[in-house]
């Protein structure tokens, strides 16, 4: 075989192999990385690295919103709010990837000053350059047309809408109404107006919002989980220490995997089930690429 023909054959084979690999990976579904370890900063970094590192999501000069759960006036050990060490580590990784600004905020249920302080998140981020830990301001909400099944429109926080990258960072916990609160429900922290009004049709309402407002990366804090009396908790007897971090670009897949930590199936949670049926992500564990980092 002459050299020119040999090069053509090699090129064709290379294209075939690469195409086959792409199809194989696509067939395997979304990747969910799961890392475990008592060093929560290192565990968080491993979970992110397994997805390709934060540089895959954050580019130099970009503005990033990291949205943890800061909704309750609880100390970190009660698992009602996101682990401050995990939050700080995610922010550090964003800055290392060249983020121009990282904004951290949540619409709280209890007094915001007490929530920010007692969650430990405000102190964990204090003094970090190019990081803003913000209380939400009413005038910054913007009306967004969803044309959804439950919500035709809603108010979402403008700084979340305008960010180049939105990182969803919920804590995994029990919820008295929806069963669990994970990534899909954490979006309520950027919703304005009367959020309580969506509870009568919460599954469709959350699907409506998440269908339009997309999280670029979902990182679920399962370093300790609240197993009962959520979302506020208040008893250490309801807390289990798991030392796990779950990360995925597919918010439904991340939620689905996190559901198993509570001894449940993804289909047991109506929010997850509704999002899957509406094509917002993968719910079936056997169709995911679960990587233990």
Please outline the major beta sheet.
10 strands, mixed
Shape: globular
Order of helices and strands: HEHEHEHHEEEHEEEHHEEHHE
Whole-number radius of gyration? 20 Å
Strand percentage: 15-25%
Number of separate helices: 10
Structural class call reads alpha/beta
Average pLDDT level: 92
Poorly predicted regions: 6-18, 20-27
Straight-line distance between termini: 45 Å
Query: How much helix is in the residues?
Result: 25-40%
Number of strands: 12
Explain how this protein is built:
The protein is of the alpha/beta class. It is built from ten helices and twelve strands. The chain has helices at 3-28, 40-49, 84-96, 112-118, 121-125, 158-162, 183-186, 202-212, 251-259, 270-277, and strands spanning 31-36, 63-68, 101-104, 131-133, 141-145, 153-157, 165-169, 171-175, 179-181, 217-226, 239-248, 289-292. The strands form two sheets. Strands 1, 2, 3, 4, 7, 8, 9, 10, 11 and 12 form a ten-stranded mixed sheet that branches. Helix 3 links the parallel strand 2 and strand 3 (101-104). The protein is globular and about 40 Å long. 46% of the residues are buried. The model is unreliable at 6-18 and 20-27 (pLDDT under 50).
Name a few traits of the molecule:
two-stranded antiparallel ribbon, 10 helices, alpha/beta, 12 strands
Brief summary of the model shown:
The chain has 293 residues and is α/β, with parallel strands linked by helices.
Architecture blueprint of SSEs:
Blueprint: H1 3-28, E1 31-36, H2 40-49, E2 63-68, H3 84-96, E3 101-104, H4 112-118, H5 121-125, E4 131-133, E5 141-145, E6 153-157, H6 158-162, E7 165-169, E8 171-175, E9 179-181, H7 183-186, H8 202-212, E10 217-226, E11 239-248, H9 251-259, H10 270-277, E12 289-292
Parallel strand pairs: 1-12, 2-3, 2-7, 3-4, 7-10, 8-10
Antiparallel strand pairs: 1-11, 5-6, 8-9, 10-11
